[in-house]
Amino acid sequence: MRWHTTWAALVIxxxxxGLAQEAATPTKNPFTDDEAIxxxxxxxxxxxxxxxxxPQELWAERGATEAKDEVFVGYGAFGFRVRDEVxxxxxxxxxxxxxxxxxxxxxxxxEVVKVLGDPPTTFxxxxxxxxxxxxxxxxxxxDFFANFKAGKVWRVEVSLK
Length: 161
Known about the structure:
alpha+beta; two-stranded antiparallel ribbon; eight-stranded antiparallel sheet
């Protein structure tokens, strides 16, 4: 009887070890793949942890109502906002060194328009300065925002509609 218990425990340990190793070794390098970070928007948080591992930052963000509360999950140059175990927003921060759908952090308004075309939506602050260009990613049911400070892209976000 004891050997059955020992054997079962050993099988469970080996299976768990295999799952952990599989989760920690993604097939692509997600830390440089902008499309993987964009495409996970709308996916489950379990997939995020399997692809990207343990986050560097994690904190709760209060919404207008309890149902709108979210969790921010940061991985340095990129991060996510999660609600109800679903990734609602993907971010690329100022220390992201690759391109994001062809644009780069630090690009000007003109460089963004050259790559992505005229923005369907332009956001301005109360002084009239452009703060963001908004584009649609139809295949994800999401919006793509190039956020500007002093005329240069400083952050990019992809947000579910």
